[in-house]
Amino acid sequence: MTPNPLPIPCLEKVPEVYDDDHEQPEGPATIGKTLETLREDGSMVKQNLALLRDWIAKHPHIRRCRTDARFLLRFLRAKKHSFLAASQTLERYLAARTLHPSWFQRLDIRDPELADLADIGFLYALKERDADGCLMALCDWGLLDPKRYTVDHSNRMHALWLEAYGEDVLAQCAGAVVIFDMQHVQLAHHSVVSLSVLRQVAHYVNNAVPIRCKALHAVNVPAGALWIVNGMLGFLNEKIRNRCSLSRDYDELAEKIDRSLLPKEHGGKEPKTEHMRAFRERCERYRDRMLALDEMEIDLDHNEPYSRHAMLDDIEGGAVGSFRKLELD
Question: Domain residues of the chain, as ranges?
Answer without folding.
Answer: 28-101+291-315, 110-286
